[in-house]
Amino acid sequence: ARVHESGSTALAEGTMDVRLAREPGSASLPFALVAVAEGRGLRRLSVYLDARPFRPWSDGPVLVLDAAT
To answer: Considering all CA atoms of the chain, what is the largest pairwise distance in Å, rounded to the nearest integer?
Structure first.
């Protein structure tokens, strides 16, 4: 992944391997993450991913984060 930083804003770009609920195996999706800090906290966190080929929104959640792994 590549990380770019300017002041209180950081942008990370890369690919992530995901498991698709309706298909066997995994897929590699491009993503970008934008984080904006304010003081000692996080003011904004945005995740962008290109999942058009898989249409996950027709089946349920687009992104599920599992903190256990």
So the answer is: 44
- For range 24-39, the mean pLDDT: 87
Q: Residue 42 and residue 6: Cα distance in Å, rounded?
A: 15
Please choose, from the candidates 61, 67, 49, 48, the residue with its C-alpha nearest in 3D space to the C-alpha of residue 20.
61
Q: How far is CA 33 from CA 18, 22, 24, 38, 45, in A?
A: 16, 25, 26, 17, 7
What is the SS3 assignment for 31? strand
Residue 60 pLDDT more than 60? no
Q: Provide mean pLDDT across the span 37-61.
A: 75
Q: Which of 27, 25, 26, 2 is nearest to 13 (CA)?
A: 2
